[in-house]
Amino acid sequence: MTSDGASAPRFAYKADRLKPLRAFCQVVRLGSISRAASALYVSQPAITLQLQALERELGVRLFERTGRRLTPTREGDALYELARPLVEGIDALPATFREQLRGLDAGELHVAAGSSTILYLLPRIVEAYRKAHPEVRLILHNVTGAGGLDLLRSDGVDLAVGSMLDAPGDLDYAPVYRFEPMLIAPPGHPLMAKPEIKLEDLSPYGLILPPQRLTTYRLVDLVFQQNRVPYTVALEVGGWEVIKQYVAMGLGISIVTSICLTDADRQRLAARSLAKYFPSRSYGVVVRKGKYLSQQARDFIELIQPQMLAPREYDETGHSGR
User: Fold this and answer.
1) What is the pLDDT of residue 4?
2) Structural domains in the chain?
3) What string of H, E and C letters represents the secondary structure of 90-142?
Protein backbone atom coordinates (compact mmCIF):
# COMPACT_ATOMS: atom_id res chain seq x y z
CA MET A 1 0.00 0.00 0.00
CA THR A 2 1.17 3.55 -0.73
CA SER A 3 0.88 6.45 1.72
CA ASP A 4 -2.49 7.50 0.25
CA GLY A 5 -3.89 3.98 0.61
CA ALA A 6 -3.67 3.02 -3.06
CA SER A 7 -2.09 -0.27 -4.03
CA ALA A 8 1.32 0.02 -5.68
CA PRO A 9 1.57 -1.74 -9.05
CA ARG A 10 3.12 -5.18 -8.86
CA PHE A 11 5.07 -6.86 -11.64
CA ALA A 12 5.96 -10.54 -11.59
CA TYR A 13 9.29 -9.89 -13.27
CA LYS A 14 10.62 -8.08 -10.15
CA ALA A 15 11.51 -11.49 -8.74
CA ASP A 16 14.29 -11.49 -11.32
CA ARG A 17 15.35 -7.96 -12.21
CA LEU A 18 18.32 -9.21 -14.24
CA LYS A 19 16.18 -10.53 -17.11
CA PRO A 20 14.47 -7.25 -18.09
CA LEU A 21 17.66 -5.27 -17.60
CA ARG A 22 19.62 -7.74 -19.74
CA ALA A 23 16.89 -7.57 -22.42
CA PHE A 24 16.95 -3.77 -22.28
CA CYS A 25 20.75 -3.63 -22.66
CA GLN A 26 20.70 -6.05 -25.61
CA VAL A 27 18.04 -3.99 -27.43
CA VAL A 28 20.12 -0.84 -26.90
CA ARG A 29 23.24 -2.59 -28.25
CA LEU A 30 21.59 -4.32 -31.21
CA GLY A 31 18.85 -1.80 -32.02
CA SER A 32 16.25 -4.51 -32.56
CA ILE A 33 13.93 -6.65 -30.45
CA SER A 34 14.33 -9.57 -32.84
CA ARG A 35 18.15 -9.44 -32.66
CA ALA A 36 18.05 -9.15 -28.88
CA ALA A 37 15.71 -12.15 -28.69
CA SER A 38 18.07 -14.17 -30.90
CA ALA A 39 21.10 -13.22 -28.79
CA LEU A 40 19.31 -14.17 -25.55
CA TYR A 41 17.60 -17.31 -26.96
CA VAL A 42 14.12 -16.12 -25.98
CA SER A 43 11.04 -15.15 -27.97
CA GLN A 44 10.40 -11.65 -29.26
CA PRO A 45 7.14 -11.34 -27.24
CA ALA A 46 9.12 -12.12 -24.07
CA ILE A 47 11.52 -9.25 -24.79
CA THR A 48 8.61 -6.92 -25.58
CA LEU A 49 6.80 -7.77 -22.31
CA GLN A 50 9.94 -7.23 -20.25
CA LEU A 51 10.54 -3.81 -21.84
CA GLN A 52 6.92 -2.78 -21.35
CA ALA A 53 6.99 -3.79 -17.68
CA LEU A 54 10.25 -1.88 -17.20
CA GLU A 55 8.75 1.24 -18.78
CA ARG A 56 5.61 0.98 -16.61
CA GLU A 57 7.63 0.65 -13.42
CA LEU A 58 9.94 3.55 -14.22
CA GLY A 59 7.16 5.67 -15.72
CA VAL A 60 9.20 6.68 -18.77
CA ARG A 61 9.53 5.77 -22.41
CA LEU A 62 12.83 3.99 -23.01
CA PHE A 63 12.90 3.66 -26.82
CA GLU A 64 11.82 5.42 -29.96
CA ARG A 65 11.83 4.04 -33.47
CA THR A 66 14.23 5.56 -36.01
CA GLY A 67 13.49 3.89 -39.33
CA ARG A 68 13.89 0.16 -38.72
CA ARG A 69 16.06 0.64 -35.64
CA LEU A 70 15.09 1.18 -32.00
CA THR A 71 17.13 3.94 -30.37
CA PRO A 72 17.07 4.81 -26.67
CA THR A 73 15.40 8.00 -25.51
CA ARG A 74 17.20 10.38 -23.16
CA GLU A 75 15.77 8.38 -20.26
CA GLY A 76 16.83 5.15 -21.99
CA ASP A 77 20.41 6.39 -22.31
CA ALA A 78 20.44 7.26 -18.61
CA LEU A 79 19.17 3.80 -17.65
CA TYR A 80 21.67 2.11 -19.96
CA GLU A 81 24.58 3.86 -18.24
CA LEU A 82 23.35 2.46 -14.93
CA ALA A 83 22.25 -0.99 -16.08
CA ARG A 84 25.10 -1.98 -18.42
CA PRO A 85 27.82 -2.34 -15.72
CA LEU A 86 25.41 -4.28 -13.51
CA VAL A 87 24.40 -6.72 -16.24
CA GLU A 88 27.95 -7.21 -17.50
CA GLY A 89 29.23 -7.64 -13.97
CA ILE A 90 26.68 -10.34 -13.12
CA ASP A 91 27.20 -12.15 -16.44
CA ALA A 92 30.96 -12.08 -15.98
CA LEU A 93 30.86 -13.25 -12.35
CA PRO A 94 31.78 -16.94 -12.99
CA ALA A 95 34.64 -16.06 -15.33
CA THR A 96 35.84 -13.27 -13.04
CA PHE A 97 35.79 -15.65 -10.10
CA ARG A 98 37.84 -18.25 -11.98
CA GLU A 99 40.24 -15.52 -13.09
CA GLN A 100 40.63 -14.40 -9.48
CA LEU A 101 41.42 -17.91 -8.35
CA ARG A 102 44.14 -18.65 -10.84
CA GLY A 103 45.70 -15.19 -10.73
CA LEU A 104 45.96 -12.45 -13.30
CA ASP A 105 49.47 -13.30 -14.48
CA ALA A 106 49.03 -17.02 -15.15
CA GLY A 107 46.41 -19.45 -16.37
CA GLU A 108 45.38 -20.84 -19.72
CA LEU A 109 44.14 -19.46 -23.00
CA HIS A 110 42.05 -21.65 -25.30
CA VAL A 111 41.82 -20.60 -28.97
CA ALA A 112 39.80 -22.39 -31.67
CA ALA A 113 41.04 -22.25 -35.27
CA GLY A 114 41.01 -24.29 -38.45
CA SER A 115 44.04 -25.99 -39.94
CA SER A 116 44.72 -23.21 -42.47
CA THR A 117 44.54 -20.53 -39.79
CA ILE A 118 46.84 -22.46 -37.47
CA LEU A 119 49.32 -23.22 -40.26
CA TYR A 120 49.47 -19.89 -42.12
CA LEU A 121 48.03 -17.10 -39.99
CA LEU A 122 48.79 -17.84 -36.35
CA PRO A 123 52.51 -18.78 -36.22
CA ARG A 124 53.83 -15.22 -35.91
CA ILE A 125 51.02 -14.25 -33.54
CA VAL A 126 51.62 -17.29 -31.34
CA GLU A 127 55.36 -16.62 -31.37
CA ALA A 128 54.84 -13.01 -30.25
CA TYR A 129 52.36 -14.06 -27.58
CA ARG A 130 54.66 -16.74 -26.16
CA LYS A 131 57.52 -14.24 -25.93
CA ALA A 132 55.35 -11.67 -24.17
CA HIS A 133 53.48 -14.12 -21.91
CA PRO A 134 55.59 -17.23 -21.32
CA GLU A 135 53.68 -17.99 -18.10
CA VAL A 136 50.38 -18.58 -19.95
CA ARG A 137 49.59 -22.04 -21.23
CA LEU A 138 48.24 -21.59 -24.78
CA ILE A 139 46.00 -24.34 -26.16
CA LEU A 140 45.07 -24.27 -29.87
CA HIS A 141 41.98 -26.32 -30.72
CA ASN A 142 42.14 -27.49 -34.34
CA VAL A 143 38.46 -27.33 -35.28
CA THR A 144 36.50 -25.87 -38.18
CA GLY A 145 32.94 -24.75 -38.86
CA ALA A 146 30.26 -25.85 -36.43
CA GLY A 147 32.80 -27.48 -34.11
CA GLY A 148 34.48 -24.18 -33.37
CA LEU A 149 31.15 -22.40 -32.86
CA ASP A 150 30.00 -25.10 -30.44
CA LEU A 151 33.18 -24.65 -28.40
CA LEU A 152 32.61 -20.89 -28.27
CA ARG A 153 28.99 -21.24 -27.17
CA SER A 154 29.85 -23.76 -24.47
CA ASP A 155 32.84 -21.71 -23.23
CA GLY A 156 35.15 -24.53 -24.25
CA VAL A 157 37.42 -21.86 -25.76
CA ASP A 158 37.99 -18.19 -24.99
CA LEU A 159 37.91 -17.07 -28.62
CA ALA A 160 38.22 -18.30 -32.18
CA VAL A 161 40.31 -17.07 -35.08
CA GLY A 162 39.26 -17.79 -38.63
CA SER A 163 37.10 -16.84 -41.58
CA MET A 164 33.34 -16.26 -41.50
CA LEU A 165 30.93 -15.28 -44.25
CA ASP A 166 28.00 -14.53 -41.92
CA ALA A 167 28.24 -14.32 -38.14
CA PRO A 168 25.32 -15.85 -36.17
CA GLY A 169 23.39 -13.46 -33.95
CA ASP A 170 24.97 -14.73 -30.74
CA LEU A 171 28.56 -14.20 -31.93
CA ASP A 172 30.70 -11.15 -32.66
CA TYR A 173 33.08 -11.36 -35.63
CA ALA A 174 35.77 -8.71 -36.16
CA PRO A 175 37.56 -9.21 -39.51
CA VAL A 176 41.19 -8.11 -39.46
CA TYR A 177 42.89 -9.58 -42.53
CA ARG A 178 41.76 -9.96 -46.15
CA PHE A 179 43.28 -12.39 -48.63
CA GLU A 180 42.79 -12.46 -52.39
CA PRO A 181 41.54 -15.46 -54.35
CA MET A 182 44.40 -16.88 -56.42
CA LEU A 183 44.68 -19.21 -59.37
CA ILE A 184 47.63 -21.57 -58.92
CA ALA A 185 49.22 -23.75 -61.58
CA PRO A 186 52.60 -25.34 -62.31
CA PRO A 187 55.26 -22.89 -63.61
CA GLY A 188 55.00 -22.49 -67.37
CA HIS A 189 51.29 -23.36 -67.48
CA PRO A 190 49.54 -21.82 -70.57
CA LEU A 191 47.17 -19.83 -68.38
CA MET A 192 50.03 -17.91 -66.83
CA ALA A 193 51.11 -16.55 -70.23
CA LYS A 194 47.77 -14.79 -70.79
CA PRO A 195 47.81 -11.01 -70.29
CA GLU A 196 44.39 -11.28 -68.66
CA ILE A 197 42.82 -14.47 -67.34
CA LYS A 198 39.08 -14.77 -67.90
CA LEU A 199 36.87 -17.20 -66.03
CA GLU A 200 36.09 -19.15 -69.20
CA ASP A 201 39.84 -19.68 -69.74
CA LEU A 202 39.75 -22.12 -66.81
CA SER A 203 37.14 -24.40 -68.40
CA PRO A 204 39.54 -26.72 -70.30
CA TYR A 205 41.54 -27.51 -67.18
CA GLY A 206 40.58 -29.78 -64.30
CA LEU A 207 40.30 -28.11 -60.90
CA ILE A 208 41.66 -29.53 -57.66
CA LEU A 209 39.33 -28.36 -54.88
CA PRO A 210 38.61 -29.03 -51.20
CA PRO A 211 35.65 -31.34 -50.41
CA GLN A 212 32.15 -30.14 -51.37
CA ARG A 213 31.11 -29.63 -47.74
CA LEU A 214 33.61 -26.80 -47.32
CA THR A 215 32.97 -23.13 -48.08
CA THR A 216 35.69 -22.86 -50.74
CA TYR A 217 34.13 -25.51 -52.97
CA ARG A 218 30.65 -23.99 -52.64
CA LEU A 219 31.96 -20.52 -53.40
CA VAL A 220 33.83 -21.68 -56.52
CA ASP A 221 30.75 -23.51 -57.75
CA LEU A 222 28.54 -20.46 -57.13
CA VAL A 223 30.80 -18.12 -59.13
CA PHE A 224 30.98 -20.48 -62.12
CA GLN A 225 27.22 -21.06 -62.04
CA GLN A 226 26.41 -17.34 -61.79
CA ASN A 227 28.65 -16.62 -64.78
CA ARG A 228 27.30 -19.65 -66.68
CA VAL A 229 30.80 -20.96 -67.26
CA PRO A 230 31.32 -24.76 -67.32
CA TYR A 231 34.07 -26.23 -65.21
CA THR A 232 35.48 -29.64 -64.30
CA VAL A 233 36.64 -30.89 -60.92
CA ALA A 234 39.52 -33.31 -61.49
CA LEU A 235 40.15 -34.07 -57.83
CA GLU A 236 38.71 -33.34 -54.39
CA VAL A 237 41.19 -33.39 -51.52
CA GLY A 238 41.41 -31.76 -48.12
CA GLY A 239 44.18 -29.42 -47.03
CA TRP A 240 45.86 -26.56 -48.89
CA GLU A 241 49.30 -28.15 -48.63
CA VAL A 242 48.07 -31.32 -50.35
CA ILE A 243 46.29 -29.28 -53.02
CA LYS A 244 49.43 -27.23 -53.70
CA GLN A 245 51.53 -30.39 -53.96
CA TYR A 246 49.18 -31.98 -56.47
CA VAL A 247 49.06 -28.77 -58.53
CA ALA A 248 52.85 -28.63 -58.52
CA MET A 249 52.86 -32.24 -59.81
CA GLY A 250 50.77 -31.14 -62.80
CA LEU A 251 47.58 -32.98 -61.77
CA GLY A 252 45.40 -29.89 -62.20
CA ILE A 253 44.97 -26.24 -61.32
CA SER A 254 43.29 -24.77 -58.26
CA ILE A 255 41.68 -21.66 -56.81
CA VAL A 256 43.00 -20.93 -53.34
CA THR A 257 43.10 -18.07 -50.88
CA SER A 258 46.41 -16.21 -50.82
CA ILE A 259 46.78 -16.93 -47.10
CA CYS A 260 48.17 -20.36 -48.00
CA LEU A 261 50.85 -19.15 -50.45
CA THR A 262 54.27 -18.95 -48.82
CA ASP A 263 57.76 -18.00 -49.94
CA ALA A 264 58.55 -21.69 -50.34
CA ASP A 265 55.85 -21.97 -53.01
CA ARG A 266 57.57 -19.56 -55.39
CA GLN A 267 59.78 -22.25 -56.90
CA ARG A 268 57.07 -24.84 -57.54
CA LEU A 269 53.93 -22.78 -58.27
CA ALA A 270 52.78 -19.88 -60.43
CA ALA A 271 49.93 -17.74 -59.14
CA ARG A 272 47.61 -15.06 -60.50
CA SER A 273 44.90 -13.08 -58.78
CA LEU A 274 41.25 -13.91 -59.54
CA ALA A 275 39.88 -10.99 -57.53
CA LYS A 276 37.89 -9.89 -60.58
CA TYR A 277 35.64 -12.95 -60.23
CA PHE A 278 35.92 -14.25 -56.67
CA PRO A 279 35.51 -12.30 -53.41
CA SER A 280 38.40 -11.97 -51.00
CA ARG A 281 38.21 -13.91 -47.73
CA SER A 282 38.38 -12.15 -44.40
CA TYR A 283 39.98 -13.63 -41.28
CA GLY A 284 39.54 -12.28 -37.80
CA VAL A 285 38.44 -12.85 -34.21
CA VAL A 286 35.18 -14.51 -33.15
CA VAL A 287 33.83 -14.26 -29.59
CA ARG A 288 30.53 -15.01 -27.92
CA LYS A 289 28.43 -11.89 -27.39
CA GLY A 290 28.42 -10.83 -23.79
CA LYS A 291 31.33 -13.11 -22.88
CA TYR A 292 33.82 -11.78 -20.37
CA LEU A 293 37.29 -11.85 -21.94
CA SER A 294 40.17 -12.67 -19.62
CA GLN A 295 43.33 -10.60 -19.65
CA GLN A 296 45.04 -13.47 -21.48
CA ALA A 297 42.43 -13.31 -24.24
CA ARG A 298 42.63 -9.53 -24.52
CA ASP A 299 46.42 -9.70 -24.78
CA PHE A 300 46.16 -12.28 -27.57
CA ILE A 301 43.60 -10.24 -29.51
CA GLU A 302 45.83 -7.16 -29.34
CA LEU A 303 48.48 -9.08 -31.30
CA ILE A 304 46.09 -9.92 -34.15
CA GLN A 305 46.92 -6.94 -36.31
CA PRO A 306 47.44 -6.57 -40.07
CA GLN A 307 51.07 -5.50 -39.67
CA MET A 308 51.85 -8.97 -38.27
CA LEU A 309 51.68 -10.26 -41.84
CA ALA A 310 53.64 -8.74 -44.70
CA PRO A 311 51.60 -8.77 -47.94
CA ARG A 312 52.77 -11.04 -50.74
CA GLU A 313 52.48 -9.62 -54.24
CA TYR A 314 52.51 -11.34 -57.62
CA ASP A 315 53.93 -10.07 -60.85
CA GLU A 316 52.33 -10.47 -64.29
CA THR A 317 54.03 -13.80 -64.85
CA GLY A 318 52.48 -15.29 -61.74
CA HIS A 319 55.63 -15.27 -59.58
CA SER A 320 55.47 -13.90 -56.06
CA GLY A 321 57.67 -11.24 -54.56
CA ARG A 322 57.92 -9.23 -51.37
Assistant:
1) 46
2) 12-91 (1.10.10.10), 106-178+282-308 (3.40.190.10), 181-279 (3.40.190.10)
3) HHCHHHHHHHHHHCCCCCEEEEEECHHHHHHHHHHHHHHHHHHCCCCEEEEEE
